[in-house]
Amino acid sequence: MSVRLLIFVIALACFSETSSAQGAPSPSPRPVAIPTGITDPAAATRAWLDTIPPDEKARSDAYFEGGYWLILWNFLLTAAIALLILTTRLSTRIRDVAARLTKFRPIQAGIYAIGFALITGILSFPLNFYEGFVREHQYGMSNQIFWAWFSESLNALEIAVVILAISLAILYRIFQATERTWWIWGTVFGIILITIGNIAAPVLIEPIFNKYTPLTDPKIRDPILDLARANQIPATQVFVVDQSRQTKRVSANVSGLAGTTRIALNDNLLNQCTLPEIREVMAHEMGHYVLNHGAKGTAFLSIFIFVGFGLAAIIFNRVIGKRGSAWGVTGIADPAGFPLLMLIFATYGFVLTPISNTIGRNIEREADAFAINAAREPDAAAMVALKLGKYRKLEPSPLEEFIFFDHPSGRSRIRMAMDWKAAQLPCGEVK
Ligand SMILES: [Zn+2]
After folding, report:
1. Is 336 inside any structural domain?
2. 44 part of a folded domain
3. CA of 21 to the centre of ligand 1 (A)
4. DSSP state of 202
5. Which range of residues forms the domain containing residue 66?
6. What is the pLDDT of residues 147-173, one digit of tens each?
7. Which residues surround ligand 1, an ion (CB under 5 A)?
8. Ligand 1 center to residue 284 CA distance, Å?
Protein backbone atom coordinates (compact mmCIF):
# COMPACT_ATOMS: atom_id res chain seq x y z
CA MET A 1 0.00 0.00 0.00
CA SER A 2 2.05 2.85 -1.24
CA VAL A 3 -0.53 5.42 -0.24
CA ARG A 4 0.21 4.47 3.32
CA LEU A 5 3.91 4.81 2.73
CA LEU A 6 3.25 8.36 1.66
CA ILE A 7 2.16 9.25 5.11
CA PHE A 8 4.77 7.10 6.64
CA VAL A 9 4.50 8.39 10.16
CA ILE A 10 0.77 7.84 10.12
CA ALA A 11 1.20 4.46 8.56
CA LEU A 12 3.29 3.45 11.51
CA ALA A 13 0.20 3.86 13.62
CA CYS A 14 -1.13 0.81 11.84
CA PHE A 15 1.35 -1.16 13.92
CA SER A 16 -1.12 -1.10 16.74
CA GLU A 17 -3.62 -2.33 14.11
CA THR A 18 -6.28 -2.12 16.80
CA SER A 19 -4.84 -5.57 17.20
CA SER A 20 -6.53 -7.52 14.49
CA ALA A 21 -6.17 -11.26 14.57
CA GLN A 22 -6.92 -11.94 11.01
CA GLY A 23 -7.75 -15.40 9.94
CA ALA A 24 -9.06 -17.10 6.90
CA PRO A 25 -12.19 -18.81 5.79
CA SER A 26 -12.41 -22.48 6.40
CA PRO A 27 -15.70 -23.81 7.56
CA SER A 28 -14.37 -27.34 7.03
CA PRO A 29 -13.94 -29.21 10.28
CA ARG A 30 -10.83 -31.31 10.57
CA PRO A 31 -11.96 -34.58 12.04
CA VAL A 32 -8.61 -36.00 12.91
CA ALA A 33 -7.55 -38.10 15.82
CA ILE A 34 -5.73 -35.59 17.98
CA PRO A 35 -5.03 -37.38 21.25
CA THR A 36 -6.94 -35.74 24.10
CA GLY A 37 -4.56 -36.31 26.99
CA ILE A 38 -1.28 -35.60 25.25
CA THR A 39 2.18 -36.27 26.60
CA ASP A 40 4.24 -35.43 23.52
CA PRO A 41 3.54 -31.84 22.39
CA ALA A 42 5.87 -32.13 19.38
CA ALA A 43 4.02 -35.17 18.04
CA ALA A 44 0.63 -33.55 18.72
CA THR A 45 1.76 -30.42 16.85
CA ARG A 46 2.83 -32.59 13.92
CA ALA A 47 -0.54 -34.38 13.95
CA TRP A 48 -2.39 -31.05 13.69
CA LEU A 49 -0.15 -29.79 10.89
CA ASP A 50 -0.55 -33.04 8.96
CA THR A 51 -4.30 -32.50 8.76
CA ILE A 52 -3.76 -29.91 6.03
CA PRO A 53 -3.71 -31.46 2.53
CA PRO A 54 -0.46 -30.75 0.61
CA ASP A 55 -2.20 -28.80 -2.17
CA GLU A 56 -3.85 -26.44 0.34
CA LYS A 57 -0.50 -25.94 2.01
CA ALA A 58 1.26 -25.21 -1.28
CA ARG A 59 -1.39 -22.63 -2.13
CA SER A 60 -1.11 -20.82 1.18
CA ASP A 61 2.71 -20.92 0.99
CA ALA A 62 2.58 -19.36 -2.49
CA TYR A 63 0.22 -16.62 -1.30
CA PHE A 64 2.34 -15.78 1.72
CA GLU A 65 5.68 -15.92 -0.11
CA GLY A 66 4.23 -13.54 -2.69
CA GLY A 67 3.90 -11.12 0.21
CA TYR A 68 7.70 -11.21 0.74
CA TRP A 69 8.17 -9.82 -2.75
CA LEU A 70 5.45 -7.25 -2.24
CA ILE A 71 7.43 -5.75 0.63
CA LEU A 72 10.30 -5.25 -1.82
CA TRP A 73 8.12 -3.96 -4.69
CA ASN A 74 6.34 -1.51 -2.43
CA PHE A 75 9.62 -0.15 -1.17
CA LEU A 76 11.13 0.12 -4.67
CA LEU A 77 8.01 1.82 -5.98
CA THR A 78 8.03 4.37 -3.14
CA ALA A 79 11.73 5.05 -3.74
CA ALA A 80 11.18 5.38 -7.50
CA ILE A 81 8.25 7.79 -7.04
CA ALA A 82 10.24 9.93 -4.58
CA LEU A 83 13.22 10.12 -6.94
CA LEU A 84 11.03 10.78 -9.97
CA ILE A 85 9.20 13.67 -8.29
CA LEU A 86 12.48 15.16 -7.08
CA THR A 87 14.63 14.77 -10.20
CA THR A 88 11.96 15.99 -12.64
CA ARG A 89 11.42 19.00 -10.32
CA LEU A 90 7.74 18.09 -10.19
CA SER A 91 8.05 18.59 -6.44
CA THR A 92 9.24 22.19 -6.81
CA ARG A 93 6.50 22.88 -9.36
CA ILE A 94 3.79 21.75 -6.94
CA ARG A 95 5.40 23.94 -4.26
CA ASP A 96 5.47 26.94 -6.63
CA VAL A 97 1.81 26.48 -7.56
CA ALA A 98 0.97 26.37 -3.83
CA ALA A 99 3.01 29.56 -3.28
CA ARG A 100 1.07 31.35 -6.00
CA LEU A 101 -2.24 30.35 -4.45
CA THR A 102 -1.51 31.68 -0.96
CA LYS A 103 1.11 33.67 0.93
CA PHE A 104 0.41 31.79 4.16
CA ARG A 105 3.22 29.25 4.44
CA PRO A 106 1.51 26.49 6.45
CA ILE A 107 -1.34 26.50 3.90
CA GLN A 108 1.27 26.27 1.14
CA ALA A 109 2.57 23.05 2.73
CA GLY A 110 -1.01 21.76 2.99
CA ILE A 111 -1.64 22.46 -0.71
CA TYR A 112 1.69 20.87 -1.60
CA ALA A 113 0.57 17.75 0.32
CA ILE A 114 -2.63 17.51 -1.75
CA GLY A 115 -0.72 17.63 -5.07
CA PHE A 116 1.91 15.23 -3.81
CA ALA A 117 -0.63 12.71 -2.49
CA LEU A 118 -2.67 12.75 -5.70
CA ILE A 119 0.37 12.16 -7.93
CA THR A 120 1.67 9.42 -5.67
CA GLY A 121 -1.80 7.85 -5.43
CA ILE A 122 -2.04 7.66 -9.22
CA LEU A 123 1.50 6.32 -9.71
CA SER A 124 1.08 3.63 -7.08
CA PHE A 125 -2.38 2.58 -8.28
CA PRO A 126 -1.23 -0.36 -10.47
CA LEU A 127 0.62 -2.05 -7.61
CA ASN A 128 -2.21 -1.33 -5.17
CA PHE A 129 -4.68 -2.77 -7.66
CA TYR A 130 -2.64 -5.93 -8.01
CA GLU A 131 -2.02 -6.31 -4.28
CA GLY A 132 -5.43 -5.29 -2.98
CA PHE A 133 -7.71 -6.65 -5.69
CA VAL A 134 -6.20 -9.02 -8.28
CA ARG A 135 -4.13 -11.09 -5.88
CA GLU A 136 -6.88 -11.30 -3.26
CA HIS A 137 -9.28 -12.65 -5.89
CA GLN A 138 -6.68 -14.99 -7.37
CA TYR A 139 -6.33 -16.68 -4.00
CA GLY A 140 -10.03 -16.58 -3.14
CA MET A 141 -9.62 -14.14 -0.26
CA SER A 142 -12.26 -11.68 -1.50
CA ASN A 143 -15.56 -11.59 -3.39
CA GLN A 144 -15.70 -7.82 -3.62
CA ILE A 145 -16.55 -6.47 -7.07
CA PHE A 146 -14.15 -4.04 -8.70
CA TRP A 147 -16.25 -0.89 -8.31
CA ALA A 148 -16.82 -1.47 -4.63
CA TRP A 149 -13.10 -1.97 -4.13
CA PHE A 150 -12.28 1.05 -6.26
CA SER A 151 -14.66 3.38 -4.48
CA GLU A 152 -13.28 2.29 -1.09
CA SER A 153 -9.76 2.90 -2.38
CA LEU A 154 -10.81 6.40 -3.43
CA ASN A 155 -12.28 6.96 0.03
CA ALA A 156 -9.00 5.84 1.58
CA LEU A 157 -7.08 8.19 -0.71
CA GLU A 158 -9.35 11.11 0.25
CA ILE A 159 -8.76 10.41 3.94
CA ALA A 160 -5.00 10.11 3.32
CA VAL A 161 -5.00 13.44 1.45
CA VAL A 162 -6.80 15.24 4.30
CA ILE A 163 -4.56 13.75 6.99
CA LEU A 164 -1.40 14.43 4.99
CA ALA A 165 -2.43 18.03 4.24
CA ILE A 166 -3.07 18.82 7.91
CA SER A 167 0.06 16.95 9.02
CA LEU A 168 2.38 18.68 6.55
CA ALA A 169 0.91 22.10 7.33
CA ILE A 170 1.82 21.58 10.99
CA LEU A 171 5.11 19.75 10.35
CA TYR A 172 6.47 22.43 8.00
CA ARG A 173 5.38 25.18 10.39
CA ILE A 174 7.51 23.35 12.97
CA PHE A 175 10.45 22.95 10.57
CA GLN A 176 10.29 26.64 9.65
CA ALA A 177 10.31 27.69 13.33
CA THR A 178 13.07 25.34 14.54
CA GLU A 179 16.26 25.57 12.57
CA ARG A 180 18.69 23.13 14.09
CA THR A 181 16.35 21.13 16.30
CA TRP A 182 13.74 20.33 13.64
CA TRP A 183 14.33 16.62 13.93
CA ILE A 184 13.58 16.61 17.68
CA TRP A 185 10.34 18.55 17.19
CA GLY A 186 9.51 16.36 14.21
CA THR A 187 9.80 13.35 16.52
CA VAL A 188 7.50 14.97 19.08
CA PHE A 189 4.96 15.72 16.36
CA GLY A 190 5.21 12.15 14.99
CA ILE A 191 4.52 10.66 18.43
CA ILE A 192 1.53 12.96 19.00
CA LEU A 193 0.19 12.03 15.55
CA ILE A 194 0.44 8.30 16.27
CA THR A 195 -1.24 8.67 19.63
CA ILE A 196 -4.12 10.64 18.12
CA GLY A 197 -4.34 8.13 15.26
CA ASN A 198 -4.53 5.21 17.68
CA ILE A 199 -7.37 6.78 19.59
CA ALA A 200 -9.25 8.24 16.61
CA ALA A 201 -8.92 5.48 13.99
CA PRO A 202 -11.33 2.95 15.53
CA VAL A 203 -13.88 5.67 16.35
CA LEU A 204 -13.64 7.99 13.33
CA ILE A 205 -12.07 6.12 10.41
CA GLU A 206 -13.21 2.50 10.67
CA PRO A 207 -16.97 3.35 10.73
CA ILE A 208 -16.50 5.09 7.35
CA PHE A 209 -15.80 1.71 5.75
CA ASN A 210 -17.88 -0.66 7.87
CA LYS A 211 -21.01 -0.83 9.96
CA TYR A 212 -20.93 -1.79 13.63
CA THR A 213 -24.07 -3.44 15.02
CA PRO A 214 -24.60 -4.91 18.50
CA LEU A 215 -24.30 -8.70 18.70
CA THR A 216 -27.61 -9.96 20.07
CA ASP A 217 -27.20 -13.76 20.05
CA PRO A 218 -26.71 -14.56 23.76
CA LYS A 219 -25.06 -17.93 22.92
CA ILE A 220 -22.07 -16.07 21.48
CA ARG A 221 -22.32 -12.68 23.18
CA ASP A 222 -22.51 -13.89 26.77
CA PRO A 223 -19.42 -16.14 26.71
CA ILE A 224 -17.47 -13.20 25.23
CA LEU A 225 -18.72 -10.83 27.94
CA ASP A 226 -17.91 -13.50 30.57
CA LEU A 227 -14.34 -13.58 29.29
CA ALA A 228 -14.22 -9.78 29.40
CA ARG A 229 -15.57 -9.64 32.94
CA ALA A 230 -13.14 -12.29 34.16
CA ASN A 231 -10.27 -10.22 32.74
CA GLN A 232 -11.30 -6.80 34.05
CA ILE A 233 -12.38 -5.40 30.70
CA PRO A 234 -15.11 -2.78 31.19
CA ALA A 235 -17.40 -3.59 28.26
CA THR A 236 -21.10 -4.34 28.30
CA GLN A 237 -21.70 -4.83 24.60
CA VAL A 238 -20.16 -6.74 21.73
CA PHE A 239 -20.31 -5.36 18.18
CA VAL A 240 -20.33 -7.15 14.84
CA VAL A 241 -18.53 -5.56 11.88
CA ASP A 242 -19.76 -6.35 8.35
CA GLN A 243 -16.33 -7.04 6.88
CA SER A 244 -17.47 -9.96 4.72
CA ARG A 245 -18.22 -7.26 2.13
CA GLN A 246 -14.47 -6.74 1.66
CA THR A 247 -12.72 -9.93 2.63
CA LYS A 248 -13.10 -13.53 3.73
CA ARG A 249 -10.60 -13.15 6.55
CA VAL A 250 -11.72 -13.27 10.14
CA SER A 251 -10.76 -10.50 12.50
CA ALA A 252 -11.65 -8.92 15.82
CA ASN A 253 -10.43 -6.22 18.15
CA VAL A 254 -10.77 -4.69 21.57
CA SER A 255 -10.13 -0.97 21.38
CA GLY A 256 -10.60 2.32 23.17
CA LEU A 257 -9.69 3.78 26.51
CA ALA A 258 -11.51 3.42 29.80
CA GLY A 259 -15.13 4.39 29.26
CA THR A 260 -14.99 3.93 25.50
CA THR A 261 -13.81 0.32 25.50
CA ARG A 262 -15.35 -1.58 22.63
CA ILE A 263 -15.24 -5.28 21.80
CA ALA A 264 -15.83 -6.05 18.14
CA LEU A 265 -15.61 -9.09 15.90
CA ASN A 266 -16.30 -9.39 12.22
CA ASP A 267 -19.08 -11.40 10.64
CA ASN A 268 -16.57 -13.84 9.09
CA LEU A 269 -15.39 -14.89 12.54
CA LEU A 270 -18.99 -15.30 13.60
CA ASN A 271 -19.96 -17.37 10.55
CA GLN A 272 -16.86 -19.46 10.02
CA CYS A 273 -15.74 -20.40 13.52
CA THR A 274 -17.09 -22.48 16.37
CA LEU A 275 -17.77 -20.97 19.79
CA PRO A 276 -14.50 -22.34 21.30
CA GLU A 277 -12.60 -20.81 18.35
CA ILE A 278 -14.40 -17.49 18.77
CA ARG A 279 -13.57 -17.51 22.51
CA GLU A 280 -9.94 -18.20 21.69
CA VAL A 281 -9.70 -15.32 19.17
CA MET A 282 -11.52 -12.90 21.47
CA ALA A 283 -9.27 -13.88 24.39
CA HIS A 284 -6.26 -13.08 22.17
CA GLU A 285 -7.68 -9.61 21.45
CA MET A 286 -8.44 -9.09 25.12
CA GLY A 287 -4.81 -10.01 25.79
CA HIS A 288 -3.68 -7.08 23.64
CA TYR A 289 -5.96 -4.80 25.65
CA VAL A 290 -5.12 -6.07 29.13
CA LEU A 291 -1.37 -6.23 28.44
CA ASN A 292 -1.42 -2.62 27.18
CA HIS A 293 -0.06 -3.52 23.79
CA GLY A 294 -1.34 -0.26 22.31
CA ALA A 295 0.90 1.73 24.65
CA LYS A 296 3.75 -0.73 24.20
CA GLY A 297 3.48 -0.46 20.40
CA THR A 298 3.41 3.33 20.62
CA ALA A 299 6.55 3.26 22.78
CA PHE A 300 8.39 1.13 20.22
CA LEU A 301 7.21 3.38 17.41
CA SER A 302 8.35 6.46 19.28
CA ILE A 303 11.86 5.06 19.47
CA PHE A 304 11.63 4.13 15.80
CA ILE A 305 10.56 7.66 14.85
CA PHE A 306 13.22 9.27 17.04
CA VAL A 307 16.01 7.24 15.42
CA GLY A 308 14.45 7.85 11.99
CA PHE A 309 14.45 11.61 12.43
CA GLY A 310 17.99 11.39 13.83
CA LEU A 311 19.10 9.63 10.65
CA ALA A 312 17.14 12.13 8.57
CA ALA A 313 18.94 15.00 10.31
CA ILE A 314 22.25 13.53 9.16
CA ILE A 315 21.26 12.44 5.66
CA PHE A 316 18.83 15.15 4.55
CA ASN A 317 21.20 18.13 4.73
CA ARG A 318 24.03 16.19 3.08
CA VAL A 319 21.89 15.16 0.12
CA ILE A 320 20.41 18.62 -0.25
CA GLY A 321 23.93 20.09 -0.05
CA LYS A 322 24.82 18.05 -3.12
CA ARG A 323 21.55 17.87 -5.06
CA GLY A 324 19.48 20.70 -3.63
CA SER A 325 20.11 23.17 -6.44
CA ALA A 326 19.48 20.57 -9.16
CA TRP A 327 16.19 19.59 -7.53
CA GLY A 328 15.25 23.16 -6.56
CA VAL A 329 14.96 22.25 -2.88
CA THR A 330 16.32 24.83 -0.44
CA GLY A 331 16.35 22.92 2.86
CA ILE A 332 14.32 21.09 5.47
CA ALA A 333 11.78 23.94 5.79
CA ASP A 334 10.98 23.66 2.07
CA PRO A 335 7.97 21.34 1.47
CA ALA A 336 9.45 20.43 -1.95
CA GLY A 337 11.99 18.33 0.00
CA PHE A 338 9.27 16.12 1.47
CA PRO A 339 9.84 13.26 -1.03
CA LEU A 340 13.44 13.01 0.22
CA LEU A 341 12.22 12.80 3.82
CA MET A 342 9.77 10.09 2.74
CA LEU A 343 12.56 8.23 0.92
CA ILE A 344 14.79 8.28 4.01
CA PHE A 345 11.99 6.93 6.24
CA ALA A 346 10.88 4.33 3.67
CA THR A 347 14.44 3.01 3.32
CA TYR A 348 14.92 2.93 7.06
CA GLY A 349 11.58 1.16 7.54
CA PHE A 350 12.41 -1.35 4.82
CA VAL A 351 15.81 -2.21 6.31
CA LEU A 352 14.23 -2.56 9.72
CA THR A 353 11.53 -5.00 8.52
CA PRO A 354 12.94 -8.02 10.44
CA ILE A 355 13.23 -5.96 13.64
CA SER A 356 9.72 -4.50 13.48
CA ASN A 357 8.31 -7.92 12.59
CA THR A 358 10.14 -9.50 15.51
CA ILE A 359 8.79 -6.88 17.92
CA GLY A 360 5.29 -7.42 16.54
CA ARG A 361 5.64 -11.20 16.66
CA ASN A 362 6.71 -11.11 20.31
CA ILE A 363 3.75 -8.91 21.20
CA GLU A 364 1.44 -11.36 19.40
CA ARG A 365 3.03 -14.24 21.27
CA GLU A 366 2.23 -12.53 24.55
CA ALA A 367 -1.40 -12.18 23.47
CA ASP A 368 -1.43 -15.89 22.51
CA ALA A 369 -0.11 -16.86 25.94
CA PHE A 370 -2.74 -14.67 27.57
CA ALA A 371 -5.46 -16.18 25.37
CA ILE A 372 -4.66 -19.78 26.11
CA ASN A 373 -4.82 -19.14 29.83
CA ALA A 374 -7.97 -17.06 29.58
CA ALA A 375 -9.97 -19.17 27.11
CA ARG A 376 -8.45 -22.55 28.05
CA GLU A 377 -9.12 -23.88 24.58
CA PRO A 378 -5.85 -25.44 23.33
CA ASP A 379 -7.54 -27.45 20.57
CA ALA A 380 -9.51 -24.42 19.39
CA ALA A 381 -6.22 -22.45 19.43
CA ALA A 382 -4.73 -25.10 17.14
CA MET A 383 -7.80 -24.99 14.88
CA VAL A 384 -7.63 -21.20 14.60
CA ALA A 385 -3.91 -21.42 13.78
CA LEU A 386 -4.76 -23.85 10.97
CA LYS A 387 -7.47 -21.54 9.65
CA LEU A 388 -5.00 -18.65 9.68
CA GLY A 389 -2.77 -21.02 7.75
CA LYS A 390 -5.02 -20.51 4.74
CA TYR A 391 -3.04 -17.40 3.97
CA ARG A 392 -0.03 -17.59 6.25
CA LYS A 393 2.71 -20.10 5.67
CA LEU A 394 2.28 -22.72 8.38
CA GLU A 395 5.82 -24.05 8.54
CA PRO A 396 8.43 -21.45 7.59
CA SER A 397 12.16 -21.88 8.20
CA PRO A 398 13.39 -20.09 11.36
CA LEU A 399 15.07 -17.40 9.24
CA GLU A 400 11.89 -16.83 7.25
CA GLU A 401 9.87 -16.51 10.45
CA PHE A 402 12.40 -14.02 11.83
CA ILE A 403 12.38 -11.80 8.74
CA PHE A 404 8.83 -11.91 7.46
CA PHE A 405 6.41 -12.97 10.21
CA ASP A 406 4.60 -10.27 12.19
CA HIS A 407 2.64 -13.01 13.98
CA PRO A 408 4.02 -16.38 15.15
CA SER A 409 3.76 -19.05 12.46
CA GLY A 410 0.98 -21.64 12.68
CA ARG A 411 3.48 -24.23 13.81
CA SER A 412 4.69 -22.02 16.68
CA ARG A 413 1.14 -21.23 17.76
CA ILE A 414 0.02 -24.87 17.71
CA ARG A 415 3.12 -25.87 19.61
CA MET A 416 2.33 -23.31 22.30
CA ALA A 417 -1.20 -24.69 22.58
CA MET A 418 0.05 -28.28 22.79
CA ASP A 419 2.67 -27.36 25.40
CA TRP A 420 -0.13 -25.81 27.43
CA LYS A 421 -2.32 -28.85 26.96
CA ALA A 422 0.46 -31.28 27.91
CA ALA A 423 1.15 -29.34 31.12
CA GLN A 424 -2.38 -30.28 32.34
CA LEU A 425 -2.65 -27.36 34.73
CA PRO A 426 -5.02 -27.85 37.63
CA CYS A 427 -8.23 -25.87 37.27
CA GLY A 428 -9.31 -25.61 40.91
CA GLU A 429 -13.04 -25.05 41.24
CA VAL A 430 -13.57 -24.50 37.55
CA LYS A 431 -15.48 -27.72 37.01
ZN1 LIG B 1 -2.98 -10.02 17.78
Report:
1. yes
2. no
3. 5
4. I
5. 2-26+50-422
6. 999 999 999 999 999 999 999 999 999
7. 19, 21, 364, 367
8. 6
